Amino acid sequence: MEFIKEQCITKPEKIQEMVKEIRKIVAEIYEKVAPKEVSRRKNIKKMKLNDIDIITMSIVGEMVGVDSERGWYAYCRKNFGEIFGEFCERSRYNRIRRNLHLVIWQIFDAIVQILGMSDVAIVDSAPLPVCKFGRARFHKTYRGYGASYGRCVSKKETYYGYKLHVVCSLEGYPVRYILTAANTDDREVVAELSEGLPLWALLADKGYIGKKFTQQLFEETGLHIFTPS
After folding, report:
1. More confident of the two residues 229 and 61
2. How far apart, in Å, are the Cα atoms of 42 and each of 46, 47, 54, 98?
3. Shortest CA distance to 186 belongs to which of 160, 211, 204, 159?
4. How far is CA 99 from the centre of its chain?
5. Which site from 52, 115, 196, 224 is most exposed, i.e. has the minimal number of CB atoms within 10 Å?
6. How far apart are CA 225 and CA 229, in angstroms?
7. CA distances from 169 to 3, 115, 198, 218 (A)
8. Nearest to 71, CA basis, from 90, 50, 95
9. What are residue 59's DSSP bridge partners?
10. pTM here?
């Protein structure tokens, strides 16, 4: 599998061990956080892959850094049959996974707390274009939903859409995220993004440079931020 060669930092057998451990944790937390209208919905017992299996696959996929939904599902189907049993169609898996996104994030937060994190983390942002730039002025779907024009410095291009701001642990686990309009300055959301996290410092790129910003952030939150000089 191409994504395994390029992205994963561990061997398939190690991923299988991770899947088993994460599934145990997911099963325990799911019972506590899943609303009854989700956990007891109609025909849930007839599902080939239950909610716990789908959430486990989704979380492990995020942890090993997989970008391809199709590739990750095929890899799980090939290697984790003894853990999950019979697999449903990929389209059904993706549909259920998206419907469970709120439960997945609650469980992911709980797993991160169990795994623990250091008091230093990484903050960064990424562009999320919603259409090709040439079609932006004619695109009506996201008008009124916060989309805007923004500049992606790394790609040296202007795009239309949103910006994703993320705090990751040094181990590579995303622990907090915020979605904003594309024209939002990275520094504007750092205080909100790090609120409640047990952090002493953040590591960031040049998008977060600013003496006034650094001082204000420390005065408001007690948080240090280190950027390239």
Report:
1. 61
2. 9, 10, 17, 18
3. 204
4. 15
5. 196
6. 12
7. 22, 11, 11, 20
8. 90
9. none
10. 0.62
Token pair belonging to 160: 């239309």
The Cα 155–Cα 32 span in angstroms is: 43
139, 130 in Cβ contact below 8 A? yes
* CB contact at 8 A, 59 and 109: no
pLDDT value at 8 more than 50? no
Give residue 207's region: left, alpha or beta (phi > 0; psi -120 to 50).
Answer: alpha
- How many C-alpha atoms does 3 have within 13 Å on its Cβ side? 15
Reported as a single tens digit per residue, the pLDDT across 104-139 is 878 877 777 776 678 899 999 999 998 887 777 777
